[in-house]
Amino acid sequence: MNKLERFNAAVNGGNVDHPPLLAWVHFLSDHLDSARVIDLHLEYMRAYDWDIMKAMNDYRYPVPAGVTSLDSIESLRRYTVLSMDEHCFKTQLEVLRGLRKALGNDVPLIDTIFEPYQQILRNVGFDQADRFLSYGSATHPALEAVTETMCNYIRAARAAGIDGIFMTINGAIPRGMPRGVTREQHEQLQKPYAIELLKAAEGMTRILHIHGDYLQMDRIADYPYEVLSVPTSGKGNPGLGELRGLTGKCIMGGLDETKIHERCLSELAREIDAAIADAGREKLILSPGCTIPSFTPKRVLEYVRAYTKKI
């Protein structure tokens, strides 16, 4: 099978020669032009022969001019619908077009997306979350503007040749945990806008990444997706076997991103074997639960790649 055939078979529940594998890392590339970012992705892909090209999207959503914090509702009123000519969107779209051209059509290309709530806080600062949440319904115009912008971006990314999106949400994290919110806050300020982005990507493969610890999985029961990605090694999170019981769709995970850099090779093999035992070979994409450390040894990644090809 080529990589795209293997990916599509895993997503749709068909037979695979081996489960697709990938691992991703942030390249600290916000300051780089598209040509260098394309090179970084291709070098990493070729070094380990990953089955999926997950394009990292480290060009942060713009903070409006003059906004340094969310200390007043006026700061949120400055969020407006943005053009795809903004540097972050224009440059990432150049990255996607360049990757598609270099990879050809036999490699799945997935872009990384963040829910509108995160798009605001990832750049202005997550230490502003409580202030943001305290404004309640007054945040809706800003969220609507970011959502419309990101829906336009997803349509442009589709035209650039991507096969799907990997969208991260924080909405299943309970209040009291880092980045957590109440059920009401999730229902009002996160879920409707995240679902709009997923709807914009309908027809592509939508990987829904549920970030955090002590995840309340019932919160995302009616989110639309084709693949469910959960950091199963996180505290209080369901394991792969439990996820298999929660959804009939493809699941993604099996490798502990917090320990992959320090495990011996035999332990890595046991971890992969356990993932297959828990989830089976079909409807499975082997991956870490989130970004791996940038200092993960080459020896480790080469071994994981070689071992999974034998499964």
Provide an overview of this structure:
The protein starts with a helix and ends with a helix. The chain is built from eleven helices and seven strands. The chain has one domain (3-308): TIM Barrel. The relative contact order is 0.14. With 311 residues, the protein is an alpha/beta fold. Helices cover 43% and strands 11% of the residues. The protein has helices at residues 3-12, 34-48, 73-77, 87-103, 116-124, 129-134, 140-159, 183-200, 240-246, 265-279, 298-308; strands at residues 53-55, 109-114, 164-169, 205-210, 227-229, 250-255, 284-288.
Query: Helix and strand succession?
Result: HHEHHEHHHEHEEHEHEH
Number of separate helices: 11
Q: Percent helix among the residues?
A: 40-55%
Total DSSP E strands: 7
CATH class equals Alpha Beta
Strand content: 5-15%
Measure the end-to-end span: 14 Å
CATH topology: TIM Barrel
Q: Supply the CATH architecture.
A: Alpha-Beta Barrel
What value does the average pLDDT take? 97
The assigned structural class equals: alpha/beta
What topology, given as strand order, has the largest sheet?
A: 1-2-3-4-5-6-7
User: What's the number of domains?
Assistant: 1
pLDDT < 50 runs, ≥5 residues = none
Radius of gyration: 19 Å
How would you sum up the major sheet?
A: 7 strands, parallel
Shape descriptor reads globular
